[in-house]
Design a protein that fits this description.
The complex is a heterodimer of chains A (760) and B (152). In chain A, a hairpin with a 2-residue loop joins strand 23 and strand 24 (643-654). Chain A is an alpha+beta fold and 760 residues long. Chain A folds into 3 domains: 2-106 and 141-241, Aldehyde oxidase/xanthine dehydrogenase, molybdopterin binding domain (Aldehyde Oxidoreductase, domain 4); 248-323 and 384-460, Aldehyde oxidase/xanthine dehydrogenase, molybdopterin binding domain (Aldehyde Oxidoreductase, domain 4), CATH 3.30.365.10; 329-376 and 472-759, Aldehyde Oxidoreductase, domain 4, CATH 3.30.365. Chain A is globular and about 85 Å long. Chain A contains 21 helices and 28 strands. Helices cover 36% and strands 12% of the residues of chain B. Chain B has helices at residues 20-27, 82-89, 99-112, 118-124, 134-151, and strands spanning 2-5, 8-11, 46-49, 52-55, 67-69. Chain B has a 5-stranded mixed sheet, with helices on one face. Chain B starts with a strand and ends with a helix. The chains are: A alpha+beta (760), B alpha+beta (152).
Chain lengths: 760, 152
């Protein structure tokens, strides 16, 4: 009955409220087991149809897009799914993230979590996908990640729009006493062509929300789509060109304090001693509190403004304890080498018998290479921040988070209150790239809010704090070895990849009670799961025990394995005297590999692959399948006086189904720039147990003058829908390294490429 | 302390060494200029002082002489500046966080060079964007230049 309580009980247009009893009214069948989070958000007069749609009497239509809008355009595409079936245009609706709720759990993020390639539809792969669906519902995590938001929403949010429209039409039919089939909807208006009368959705919404939608929802075929499949302007576009107050860092509350954190730069240990005197003397600094959480230990500086808090943090003198991990990067690399030299933890993608094939191969017919990649920071443009207000045993937070439910439950545990006593308002985000799913940011803000005497506090990290306390893209190294025929074709491929475990790191800081271990496909993803018809293959993972916090960085394991494997394939092509495009095509012959072949052929055509180029210029090609999307890229460089200028990138991507072409192209472009930025000099290194980088002056990213022209084309050959946010990143770095080789004959196997060659 | 910002004079108390950015954001509640690095390395905080682009995160508030323009001051009578219109037309923003600074830098560029070449844009637009919107920024600047030319 709580749901009905939010709906006005007054009669409207003579329709009256039919249901006041225990009827499960207007409840969206798909999410039946979970409460509707929208009920708590609905204002007086709002009619709530399901977790995604509410309509006010004045015809204000609100669509809940319960995924993090961090630049990938997800609020626009998710709203379009509902709008399409609700029969309204996007400019007619308000789009909100909404409050956290299990109803918004992300199933698609986990479906591909099993150790199978995307195109594998064998019984085991499908059975695993089925059980992952069950697991995902059991965990009910509302997360944005894995380029999964649109895939997850594709059916359920269209059904939400459809269910709402059907009951609106049914209520109107009842009002007019006509058959629902005679009524037409368009732009939020229902038209009765018999009497030429109209009703807006708002006018009938209260009555409509009382009705039960049919269990079978007839979704529109693609041929009838009005909004989906067409490029849409972003729903938050105006805010983003007018300096809109939409980010977490823009939150302003009455009586608000400001703060920052100084967390131990040595991971897993805290302070040995602290002198707060100088910091407390900084004008505007009010208090310095101790912070002790599962993600880190240190201090919170509470102040009258952010600048005072930053100065206080600088003035705070702390001696940090010494952790037991290696003090510097060389020591950490040694740990990888030790892991590599030890037996593998698990094997994936095993086909044929590599050992037997190697034993039968002439020793002269082998080729091998070793690659490595460093730790990387996310460096979102908006530094980490959260605003928290703890009063009367209840916590309210405003935070740009990819995991609002996790923020809610971990902060409740920290403060010893119930989860339902934590309200999380998810703001729009100045970049996420995987960083904003972490709970350190909300935990520190919650800890500080508990010490302000009931006043709200906005906690903003300095860029230095952000850079030095990330959950980094892990360090990794790989050994590739191939046996070849006399003609240079690969008969066997043996791959060993060493890296620390992201899941072990994540569980340790987020769910310390859950033990980690087992097969973590992340270490091998982007390698074992690629389209390949090499007859004998084996991919072995070697997990290194390194406690540096690591996490999900745009494209995750694909971000390094894409570079490793696609560089290696290119090397073998050149060793064998074959064209890198033709060589790739010759090794992906199965029918299910067709999307890979098509994107490769398409990008080759776009780039005029194989055409003659002036001296100094070179083209490199690469393909990667990640997050269900097949992406081929050609990078063209100009190398003059040993300086590389990245001139142009062509990209062909196949997501199976494209809902917003311009936005998908923008995501590919973004993924490419994010990927190429690594090559230009990004690396996180350590000395004295601490990260050596502080700010953009020592961990930069691609700038305007370095940015190539980027051309993207989209294909739709794939059998299932893929993601958009991440798949543009993995092929970019190998395509660049391969282009540099084509131009200079110099093979660079270590990231960042800038260690071996200069960039403009 | 007294400052004219977007045509309005504000009187307020602030430490002399407080960067203009924090006076704008925390004291005057003008949230368009964003905090990105605090060391003039990213440009998210770019505002204009007498029409010149300035990175407000390292510019002491007590050193400000002249009129400050933030992105909130760009529209005239509710009509978006040509650069803002071009940004919308090209759907430049992704996360959007750097775009206040990018737009202010572009306005300053077009005030100086009415028809910038690619090199002019590369030289003037040194602001960081982690979403990789540079190609769209470049196209939007050229479009804004054309719009301003028509109105000139």
């Amino acid at each position: 009955m709580s749901r009905l309580g939010t709906i006005t009980r007054r009669s409207f247009m003579g329709l009256g409220v039919a249901a006041t009893g225990g009827l499960a009214v207007g409840y969206y069948f798909y999410t039946k087991p979970f409460p509707n989070p929208l009920t708590a958000m609905a204002a007086e007069g709002d009619a709530v149809f399901n977790p995604y749609v509410k309509i006010a009497a004045d015809n204000t239509i609100t669509i809940i897009a319960p995924r993090a809008e961090m630049g990938q355009g997800v609020h626009t595409t998710l709203a379009a799914l509902v709008a399409e079936e609700l029969d309204v245009s996007l400019d007619q609706v308000n789009v909100e993230h909404g409050l956290p709720g299990k109803a918004y759990y992300n199933e698609a993020m986990m479906v591909e979590g099993g150790p199978f390639p995307f195109f594998d539809e064998t019984f085991m792969a499908e059975a695993t996908r089925g059980s992952m669906k069950v697991v995902s519902k059991f965990l009910a995590l509302q997360m944005t990640g894995g380029s999964s938001a649109t895939i997850d929403a594709f059916v359920k949010m269209r059904e939400a729009g459809c269910a709402a429209r059907l009951v609106l039409v049914a209520a109107a039919a009842e009002h007019w006493g006509v058959d629902a089939g005679t009524l037409r909807t368009s732009g939020g208006v229902i038209t009765n062509h018999v009497n030429n009368e109209t009703l807006t959705y708002g006018e009938i919404s209260e009555a409509a929300a009382q009705l039960e939608p049919p269990s079978k929802l007839p979704l529109r075929p693609r041929s009838e789509w009005k909004t989906l499949g067409k490029s849409q302007p972003r729903v938050e576009g105006l805010d983003k060109v007018t300096g809109g107050r939409i980010f977490g860092i823009d939150v302003q509350l009455p009586d608000m304090l400001y703060g920052t954190v100084k967390i131990s730069p040595r991971f897993g240990v805290g302070a040995v001693s602290v002198d707060k005197n100088a910091a407390l003397k900084v004008a505007g600094v009010l208090d310095i509190i101790d912070i002790e959480t599962t993600t880190g230990s240190g201090f919170g500086i509470i102040a009258e403004n952010t600048w005072a808090a930053f100065q206080g943090a600088d003035a705070l003198e702390v001696k940090w304890a010494t952790p037991d991990y290696p003090a510097n990067t060389d020591g950490m690399k040694s740990m990888l080498d030790i892991a590599m030299a030890t037996n593998s933890d698990f094997t994936l993608g095993k086909v044929g018998n590599v050992e037997k094939e190697f034993n039968n191969t002439d020793p002269e017919n082998f080729f091998g290479a070793v690659y490595d990649a460093p730790y990387l920071a996310h460096t979102t443009m908006e530094p980490m921040n959260a605003t928290a207000h703890f009063k009367d045993g209840k916590l309210e937070m405003w935070i740009g988070t990819q995991g609002p439910g996790l923020a809610q439950s971990t902060c409740a545990a920290l403060l010893g209150i119930k989860t339902e006593d934590v309200t999380v308002n998810t703001t729009r985000m100045g970049g996420g790239f995987g960083r904003r799913g972490e709970v350190d940011v909300p935990l520190y803000a919650a800890a500080m809010a508990a010490k302000t005497g009931g006043r709200p506090i906005k906690v903003t990290w300095s860029r230095e704090e952000d850079m030095r306390h990330d959950t980094y893209r892990p360090i990794a190294t790989a050994q590739f070895r191939a046996s070849l025929t006399d003609d240079g074709d690969i008969t066997g491929l043996d791959v060993d990849i060493a890296s620390p475990s992201i899941l072990t790191s994540l569980l340790g800081r987020t769910f310390p009670s859950i033990p980690a271990g087992g097969t973590e496909k992340i270490v091998l993803e982007g390698a074992f799961d690629q389209p390949s018809t090499i007859p004998n293959r084996r991919y072995q993972a070697h997990i290194a025990d390194l406690p540096v916090p690591i996490g999900f960085w745009r494209s995750v394991g694909n971000s390094f394995n894409g570079f490793f494997q696609e560089s290696f394939i290119d090397e073998v092509a050149h060793v064998s005297g074959k064209d890198p495009l033709e060589f790739r095509l010759s090794m992906m012959n199965d029918e299910e590999h067709r999307p890979a072949r098509e994107v490769l052929k398409k990008v080759a055509k776009m780039a005029n692959w194989g055409g003659s180029l002036p001296a100094g210029k070179g083209q490199g090609i690469a393909h990667a399948l990640s997050f269900g999307t097949w992406v081929a890229q050609v990078v063209q460089v100009d190398v003059t006086d040993d300086v590389v200028k990245i001139e142009k990138v062509w990209c062909a991507a196949d997501l199976g189904l494209v809902l917003d072409p311009d936005n998908v192209k923008a995501q590919m472009m973004s993924g490419i720039v994010y990927g190429l930025s690594q090559a230009l000099g990004q690396e996180i290194t350590f000395s004295d147990h601490e990260v050596e980088q502080y700010n953009f002056y020592d961990f930069d990213a691609m700038r305007m003058h370095q940015c190539p022209e980027i051309v993207v084309e989209l294909l739709e050959n794939s059998h299932r829908m893929g993601g958009a946010g991440e798949p543009g990143t993995p092929p970019s770095t190998p395509a660049l390294a391969n282009a540099i080789y084509a131009s200079t004959g110099k093979r660079i196997r270590s990231m960042p490429l800038s260690h071996a060659i200069d960039f403009a | 302390m007294k400052l004219t910002i977007n045509g309005t004079t504000h009187e307020f108390e602030a430490a002399a060494n407080m960067p203009l950015l924090w006076a704008l954001r925390d004291i005057l509640d003008i949230k368009g200029p964003k905090f990105g690095c605090g060391v003039s390395a990213c440009g998210a905080c770019t505002v204009l002082i007498n029409g010149e682009p300035v990175r407000s995160c390292t510019y002491n508030v007590s050193d400000v002489e002249g009129e400050v323009t933030t992105i909130e001051g760009l529209p005239i009578n509710g009509k978006l500046h040509a650069v803002q219109q071009a940004w919308l037309k090209h759907q430049v923003p992704q996360c959007g966080y750097c775009q206040s600074g990018q737009i202010m830098a572009a306005v300053a560029l077009l005030n100086t060079i009415s028809n910038p070449t690619d090199t002019d844009i590369d030289d003037a637009m040194t602001n960081l964007c982690r979403c990789g919107t540079y190609p769209k920024i470049k196209a939007a600047i050229k479009d804004a230049a054309a719009m301003l030319e028509v109105n000139r």
